[in-house]
Design brief:
globular, Retroviral polymerase SH3-like domain-containing protein, mainly beta, SH3_retrovirus
Length: 53
Amino acid sequence: KLDPRSIKGVFVGYSSTQKGYKCLDPTTGRVYVTRDVTFLEHASYFCENPLQG
């Protein structure tokens, strides 16, 4: 009950039908709408090094 329930997501836009932010969960590919978000503007979610190969 008191365990953390946060999900790291990527902001993809604003919902046109609900009050909230559309976020993508990269692990599941699911897009969800939520009003409870914390933006980490100075942190990068994706790897900054380009793929080599």
